[in-house]
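Hi, here's the filled form for the chain we discussed.

Project: internal
Contact: R.S.
Residues: 91
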Amino acid sequence: MKKLVGQVTAEEKQEIQTLFERRNGLNELAKILTPENSDLYEKLVKDLGETTTKFQNWWDTKAKKYRWEAAENGNWEINFETCEIFLTTKD
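And the returned structure, exactly as it came back:
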């Protein structure tokens, strides 16, 4: 089930879209990079951890700011075209 629970500004949307794209790129890189290349691997792990934290902090901050409805086992999604925030659940 998907329910509209809010909207963010274009600037806020850009922040999360940048983090989303970076996280996805790092995850793809992680699939092909091996620990044998230790320097690059360590940088990847560090960057992925930092990006994931920033990504989650963005959601936590905006949820508090806008008081979005939440649900157990639910998560929020953003429509990058409309800046709308949806709560998705498995119902």
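Let me know if anything looks off before we file it.
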